[in-house]
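Message: I would love a firmer grasp of how sequence relates to backbone shape in proteins. Thank you; the sequence and its tokens follow:
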Amino acid sequence: MIKRLAVIGVGLIGGSLALALKKKAAVDEVVGYARSSEVRKQ
């Protein structure tokens, strides 16, 4: 199991990947980064 996953670019693909891994309990913690403030609000 992955303890912490960093996703650089949490748009459609990055966000979907992070959510799927979290839902399957393959990762304990997800940390995401997005340049756009609009994406960060989602």
Summary: Residues 2-41 form one domain. The beta strands are 2-8, 27-33. The mean pLDDT is 88.
